[in-house]
Amino acid sequence: MKVKINSIPPGPRARGIIEVMNRNCYNSTFTYPLVISGGQGCVITDVDGNSFLDFSSNIGTCPLGYSHPAILEVLSEYSHNGAHKIAGQDYYCKEHADLSEKVRTILPAGFKTFFVNSGAEAVENAIKLAYRKMSTETPSLLPGLSCTNAFHGRTLGALSFTLSKPIQKAGYPELPALRIKFCTDENDSEIESLQKILESNKVAFIISEVVQGEGGYNFASKRFVQNLRRCADKFGVPLILDEVQSGMGRTGKWWAFEHYDVIPDIMSAAKALQVGMSAYDAKFDPGEQGALSSTWGGGSRIDMAVGTATIDVINRDGLLKNALAMGERLQKGIGDLSKDDKTGITGVRGKGLMIGLELDSKSRRDQLLTRAFKNGLLLLPAGQKAMRLIPPLVITAEEIDEGLELMQDIFAQT
After folding, report:
1. Over the stretch 353-362, which tens digit does the pLDDT of each residue have?
2. Are 331 and 354 in contact (CB under 8 A)?
């Protein structure tokens, strides 16, 4: 058993740190009072010595878990490098070159990259690339087109095309946007609505997730995604696919769109890659300096070296296959758990180690998240009343089974 709760969290040291943050900082989106100290494998430890089995991967940002030998080797190598962070779009560094070469091996052929700090910036620059291309044909500011329940980031441009929770958008200005339904059912009557919108509206781009993350772990139907590609081609509109949360092996393939037999024109990635990335078909390259830039983009040398090592480890250790096998094991276990009506589980969906669990109410979901935390299991909310389970790609069958045992106990409590 890897979970160990010495004192019901938050313990005394954690409470002290939280009090300081509450006094000095904006209370943003904290899910529960976890104050992280360190970690090993799929286990996180807090400042009071409690150990938690992590089924959140820090929202997908730690695909190799914690203290992975390959990552510690990178950190050790850079521990005495005083120029570990540079202005990476103004100066060159080997880490930028290495990551661009490595990531090219997992991108569609002919793609170029632009590295930034975060997923939201990756989306922002994907949008800018599309606008830049389309503005040469239509000078006026065209609307972009996104989906219901979408989440593309919290910066203003990306936020314009987000439609996940009202609080995320309230009171902020927006770029012009049109919406279509994100269809998860192959027979959804609204799958063809995109064609009708594009027949009567000129748009700058279509942007969509393949798997909605913040919006609820909703998995698009194959017909829906392929229809996005078909309509984008027919009407000459760039297709942007947002892989910030679903990319880098999370679904058992490098990119979730590979499950759908499509290729985007432009895409965004971040989280597991350690840096933000806008990747695009070379025909969308602005072709002149200054159209895109970022002080730290391409300049966080440690993060870029860790990103390169992460791709190497996923390849070397067969972690795409592990994600599929362990995801199947976890889904089956949750499916068995859901047979008991008392659990409140109304649905389970997933690909690889990206799994959504729907509850019958938000209040039950929130109670279960807190209960799981206090019992040493880290889960995350998504959508209105769903949980998301995104363990590190290195997770073992034993750790899956331990997580399922914890879930069984947690769901059984009244």
Report:
1. 999 999 999 9
2. no
